Amino acid sequence: MEYRQLGKHGIRVSEICLGSWLTYGGATAEDTGRQCIEQAYDLGINFFDTANVYARGEAEKIVGKVLRQYRRESYVLATKVYFPVGNGPNDRGLSRKHILEQCDASLKRLGLDYIDLYQAHRYDPTVPLAETLMAFDLLVKQGKILYYGVSEWSAGQLAHATDLTRLANLAPIASDQPRYHMLDRTIEKEVLPLCRREGIGIINYSPLAQGLLTGKYKPDGDLPEGSRASDPKQNMFLNHGEFDRRQLLKVQQLLPIAEREGLSLSQLALAWCLRHVELSSVIIGASQPAQVRENVGASGKQLSAATIEQIEEVLASESGDRLTVGV
Fold first, then answer.
1. List of E strands, 126-192
2. Catalytic residue among 3, 24, 41, 54, which?
3. Is 54 a catalytic residue?
4. What residues does each domain of the chain span?
5. What is the pLDDT of residues 116-173, one digit of tens each?
6. Element (H, E) at 130
């Protein structure tokens, strides 16, 4: 396993991060979640990502319970705040009240004294940005969190926030967690350059496009049994299994490239993301330990310029348009 710094900050995280969205405490049994986390740790993954809303807090409980068997200094734990956790008017968003209360609630569920990376799960336009940033800064000063980051903020929102932290001498934003994969390259235009300039580490989620970039979904085939797209509880994130055939054809064209490199398609997709030095880590999901073992194989893989060019040709095919997929 290779490790990278979180942007300009001193903390080092594994190139592969194990996430818990749609899995632990929800679609995956606790015992399986434990096996995946333990397998990840044994393979050198030191970075684990969750959120207070995943499985209504159950994901945090499972992740915290499993990680407590290891030395606290040996892993980096990230969680998030923003989405509703109740029906009350203050049970959501990025107000000072909600951020401080939910940090305490997450610490209790995790069974920990501090959170390594606390993230704003989305941008909240209803709360003054200064209030949000000052709340995170207070948590840093209190020692309840070590770093804080954001997820799915626009380049303009990030730029405004970094300006405010400098002007008010607040703790800086350490990370950004956007969606990024071969079929959705939106961040390359503005977010990636801004994070490079500001020293913000990128931790991208959905690097395998919710399974599309594993090759298991065929252009003319039925949905594989047991896949996310075949599960009514999860397939809303995959357009209920109704895929763009052009995208699936592109994925099939990537298979020979992966085989030539001695990689699985998943490993190729992860290595393609990690070619950016701005990326600190890619977040994978796993419902079985074997998936963790396969994905870890992408760490440290360097793709040649010729291979990158071939991938670009596939992705830019059909009139040169790069398609996006909302997963």
1. 145-151, 175-177
2. 54
3. yes
4. 3-209+275-300
5. 999 999 999 999 999 999 999 999 999 999 999 999 999 999 999 999 999 999 999 9
6. helix 129-142
